[in-house]
Amino acid sequence: MTPRVTKLVLGLSAPILALLMAFLITSAVLAAAGDPVGEVWGQLLSVPETRNVGNIIDNATVLYLSGLAAAVGFRMNLFNIGVDGQYRIAAFVAAVVAGEAWLPGYLNTVLAVLCAMAVGAVWAGIAGVLRATRGVSEVISTIMLNAIATALVAYLLREAAVREAGSNVIATKTIPEDSRIPNITISDGPPVVDIYGFVVLAVLAGFLFWFVLNKTRFGFDLRATGRSTTAAVASGISVNKMTVAAMMLSGAVAGLVGLPILLGSSFSYGSTFQSGLGFAGIAIALLGRNNAVGIAVGALLFAYLNEQSNPLQILVGVSPDIVAITQGTIVLTVVISYEVVRRYGVRMEQQAVARALEQERDDERAEVKA
Amino acid sequence: MRRSTRLAALLTAGILALATAGCGDEDEPNDDPTTGSGGDSSETADAPESDIKVGMAYDVGGRGDQSFNDSAAAGLDQAVEEFGFESEEGEASDGEAETQREERLRTFADAGYNPIIAVGFAYSASVAKVAVEYPDLSFAIIDDTASCEPFDGSDPVPNVACLVFAEEQGSFLVGAAAALKSEAGHVGFVGGVQVPLIEKFQAGYEAGAKAVNPDITIDVTYLTQPPDFSGFGDPAKGKTAAEGMYQGGADIVYHAAGGSGGGVFEAASEAGALAIGVDSDQYNTADPSVQDVILTSMLKNVNVAVYEYLTEVAAGTFPVGTNVYDLSVDGVGYSTSGGLVDDITADLDGYKQQIIDGEIEVPTAP
Amino acid sequence: MSAPTVEEATSTGAPVTVRLRGIGKRFPGVIANDDINIDVRRGTIHAIVGENGAGKSTLMKILYGVQPPDSGTIEIEGTQVSLKSPADAIAAGVGMVFQHFMLADNLTVLENVVLGAEKLHGIGGAARAEIMRISDSYGLDVEPDRMVEELGVGARQRVEILKVLYRGARIVILDEPTAVLVPHEVDELFDNLRELKKEGLSVIFISHKLDEVLSVADEITVIRRGTTVKTVSPRDVTARQLAELMVGSELPSPSTETSTVTDVVLLSVKNLTLAGVDGRELLKDISFDIHKGEVLGIAGVEGNGQEELVESIMGMRHSSGEIRLDGRDLAHESTGERREAGIGYIPADRQRHGLLLDAPLWENRVLGHQGRPPSARGPLIDKRAARADTERIIAAYDVRTPGPDVLARALSGGNQQKLIVGREMSSEPIVLIASHPTRGVDVGAQAAIWGHIKDARRNGLAVLLISADLDELIGLSDRIEVILRGRMVGTFDPGDVTPEQLGSAMTGASL
Predict the structure, then answer these.
(1) What percentage of chain B reaches a pLDDT higher than 90?
(2) Which residue range is the domain that position C440 belongs to?
(3) What pTM was estimated for this model as a whole?
(4) Is the preceding peptide bond at C374 cis, omega within 30 degrees of 0?
(5) Counting C-beta atoms within 10 Å of the first and last residue's C-beta, which end of chain B has fewer, N or C?
(6) In chain A, which residues have their Cβ closer than 8 Å to the Cβ of B125?
(7) Same structural domain for residues C129 and C220?
(8) Which of A150, A314, A315, A318 has the most B C-beta neighbours within 10 Å, making it the best mutation to test the interface with B?
(9) Is C372 on the interface with A (CB under 8 A)?
(10) Helix pair A292-311, A198-215: axis angle to 10 deg
(11) CA of A272 to nearest chain B CA: how many angstroms apart?
C-alpha cells in the first residue's frame, strides 16, 4: 500500500469503526429498555422524505457553522464553550440591525451578517483577552460569558422587542422581505421543499476554514500553538496574540450560527429562538475531528438523528432520549476509535522508519561483506 | 367565547370526573347529556370505542413533569378512558429547532392522527404553519391565540382551536386572599420566567391585592429571563427569591414558577410565613412538611380544557377559535384545601362574581 | 565480604552474576535489540557504551523489568529469571538509578529512601539504622534528615544509589550517571562505585563518555545498532578505538581550527539583567560580544542562568539591558522578528521547544520560519517548497527518515536534532544560538553537527554555544565564559584550559 492509500484507509476505518460500535451500544441500550430494536433501526435507516431532507439540510447548516466555530478553537487547544452565548448575542444584534433596515435590500443583509460576526468576535474576544493577559481559563470565562449573554439578550430583547398583545413570544422587529436570504427550492412538490439559501454561505465558510487553517501562515501559527505552546513561543509565534485572534475568529464564525434561521425562516429574534446550538457544535467538531469535511458529515448525522426523533417517538413509541443517547454514543465512540486508529497509525509509521533503517543496515552489512 | 355556556355545563362534570379519576377508581358511567347529544359517538360505559386517534405534542418535560404537561396529560387520559380514543404522544426536547416542532405535528398528521393537540405557547408558530398545510385536520393549542387571532389582523386559521386561560382572573382572587390575610401589608410574587404569560399572573395578583388594600407593598421577582427557561424548574432559585422577600417583610408569597415553587414553600415554612400555589391545588401535591404554609392555590385547569375539547370531539364537532377558560366556566379559580381561606371565601366569591359580571376588569399586563 | 579482585578487572575468576543471552526486542520504534550477549561478573563495574539510540535504554528497560524481551534469556546468579515488572527485578536483586532522579524534594532523605519500602525496616529507628549502615559501608555520606531540596546534584545521586541498596540490590544499574555532574562530583561518584564493587556488588554503568568509562570500568561492552559488538578490557583499548567500535567508522573530533574571528560584532549583549518572579535576579549584568566567525562558549552547571540567557536573547523573556544584533537594537523586537533578523536557534529541549512532535517533518521545517521563503509566500504557507527544502535537509544533514511526511515523533532523538540544526542553518542566520546542540545525540550525529557549526563559523557565523559537554566547549569555542548563579564569573581561552579548571570555575571553587 502506498502511504496515501494507507492514510485513506486509516482515515475511513475510524468513523466506520465508530458507527459500528455506536450501533451495537445503542442496540444494547434499546434492548435493555425493552424497546423494539429492529423497528427503531428500521425507522432510523429508512429513506427520509424530501420534506425531511430539507429539514435535515437546514438543521445541518446551523450545526455545521457551530461545529466550525468550536473547531477553530480546538485547533489551537482552546475550548470555546461559549459558542452558545456568542451566537445568541450575535443573532440578536443581527436581528435588531436587519429589523431596523437602515440600509436597503441586501446591503442591510450584509450589514447584519457583518454585525453578527463582529459581535461574536468581540464576545469571544473577551475570553481571549482574559486568557492572554490574566491567564483565565477560557473554559471558565466562556461559560460565564454564556450566562451573561443569556441575561443580556433577555434584557435587551425586552427593551427592543415588538410586543404583540396576548402573545407569549416576544421578538425583535421582523426583517423586511427584501433583506431576507431567499430559500433554495429542492423539490417543486407537492409539497414544495425549500432549504436555507444560507447553505451556500455555510459551504463557503467551510472552505475558508480549510483554507485559512491549512494554507495560510496564520493557520500554521494557530495549529502550531495548538500542538505545542512551548515550541510555538520558541518559533516566534506570539501566543497571546494568537489566543485573542483564534478566539475572535471562533467567535466570528459563531456569530454566523443563528443567521440561517434568522435570515431564512424566523426573520426575527424572539424568546423561542433556538438555543443550545453551541453545545451541539462542540460535539460535532469532535465528531468531525475539527476537519471541514468531517464536521459537515457530523452535522448531517446529528441533523438526521434529530429529524428521526419525532417519528421514533410517534411511530415507534421510543423515548426521544434514545436519540440523545445515540448522539452521545456516537461522539464517544468516534473519539475512542480515532484514538485507537491514530495510535495504530503512529505505530505503523514508526515501523516504517525502523524498516527503512534496517534496510540501510542490511545494505551496510552487504557492503562490509563485499 | 360563543361556546362558553355550553362548556360551562360540561365543566362541572369534567371536574368531578377528574377528581374521581385522580383517586384511580374511575368507573363512573358517562352520563353527561352534552356528550350524548353528539349522538353518533355511540360509546358506552362498558366498552368505549372510537376510531379517533388523538396526537398530543407536549412541551419540554413532557408527561411526568408534575406540572403543566402533566395536567394536559390528565385531561387526555380521562378522555381516552371515557371515549375510547387511541392516542399517541410526542415531546419537545430542549433547544430543538422550529422545524422539529413542525415536524412533530406533521408526523402526527401523516400518521392519521386527528385532532392534534399542541401543549404550550412554544408551538404557536408551528401550529399556525402546519394547520394550514393540513386543512382537513383539526388542531388545538394551549396557552396561545396566534392562530385564532393573528396579530397582523389576517384571517384566523380555520381548523385551530386556541385554548387559553384567564390566569389574571384566578390570580386576582389569590391576590385578594393574600391582601386579606397579610398582617404586614406586604406580599410577594415569584414568577418563573419573565414571559407575557407569567406577567398575566403578576398583573392579576397585583390588581387583586390592591383591590383589597390600595397601600399594600408587593415585591415582584422573576427567576430567569427567556430564553433561559430554567426558572420553571429550579427550586433552589425559588427558595432564594422567596427567602429574600420574607426577610424583607413580606408574609405571603405567590409563585407562578412551576417546579421552582417547591423552594418557595420551603422558604415559607422556614420563615413561618405563608405561600400561594399555582396551576393545581398544591396543598394536595406539595410535600406534606410544607402543606400547612399553603394558603391557597390559583387553579388553572388545563386538564379540564383538554378534556372539554376532546369531549366535543367525541361528540363529533371539532371546536375552532379561541376558547377562554375563565372564572365563569371555572377554567381558573382558587383552592380551599387546608381551610386557611375558609374565613374569607365570602369576600373572594364576591370578587369572583364581580369579575364574572364584568364589574371588575382584571388587567392582563403589569 | 572480602573482595579479592579489587584493583583490576579480570575476565577470569569472579563468577558471573548477570548473564544475558540472545536478547532480542522487536520494538515498534527505531531500534530493536538483536542478539545481545553480556556477562557481568560479581564485584566489577561493567560499562555498556553505545551511540544514543543504539539500544542501551531498551536493554536496561528489559533488565529492570519495564519491558519483556521478545527472545533470549536472562540469568541472575545462575538462575534463569523472567522479569515482568520492576518489582520482579528488585526481588531478583536488580536496582536502577535513573538519569532523572525520582526524589520528592519536600521530603527528607530518610523519607525518600523508605518511601515505598516501608515493609523492609519500617519508617523509624530501624530504617535510620539501616540507612546509616549502608551509607557508612559504601562511603555514601548521606545525612538522613536533610531535606532533598537542600541537596546538590551529587548528593541526590547518592540518595538514589542508597535507595537501591536499601531495597537489597546486588546489581546496580546506573543510566548516564555523570551527565548531570561536574568533574569533581564525577570523581566522588566513581569512588562510591569502587566501594560498591569492593563489597561484591556488580555495577552496570551506561555512558557514552568514553574517558570516564575507561577510567572506572573493569569491562566494557560496546553496543551498536541494537546488538553487542564486542566486550573489551579498558587496558586494551583507547578512547578512540572505543568510539570507532561504537560508530563503526573513522571518528571525527572537535578540534580547534585556525581562528576565523573578525572584529565585526554581530551580537552584543550589555548589562543584561533578568529578575525572577520572586525578585531574585536570575541574570545579573551579563555583557559580551560575539564577532563574526566567532564561537563563544558558555560553561556552567545546569540551572545557573543559561536557559534564561538564551531565552532573553530570543525575546522569550523580558530582560533589562541592551541586546544588539549587527548593530540593531532588539529591545522592542518580538521573538519572531529576532528570528527573521537573522538569529538561528537550537533550543536545549528539542521536544518542547524545537519541534511539533505530531506534525510532519515538512511542517517542522516551517516552524520558526513561517514568514520566509521557502516556507511561505506572502501570507500563505508554501507546502511544495517547504517539502522540497525538507528533502534537501534530510539529504544534507543525513536525517534518517523515509520522507518529509513522517511525523517528527517517529524519528530518533539524533535525527530530530539533525533536522533542527538543518532547519536553523538553512535560513542563513548571522548569529546562531546553540543550546546543547549535541545532547543525547549519537557520536555520528554529534560529529556531523560539529562539522556544520564549524563550517558556518568559517563562513562568518557568530555562535553562542551553551553546552554541558566541556570537551565540546573546548573543542568548538574561540572563547569560553563561565556562568555561575546568573553572573559571568570568568573568561577562558579554550587553547589552554582543562576541563578540570573549567569545572572548578563552574562550581565557584576557584573564586
Answers:
(1) 45
(2) 252-342+430-511
(3) 0.76
(4) yes
(5) N
(6) 169, 272
(7) yes
(8) A314
(9) no
(10) 140
(11) 6
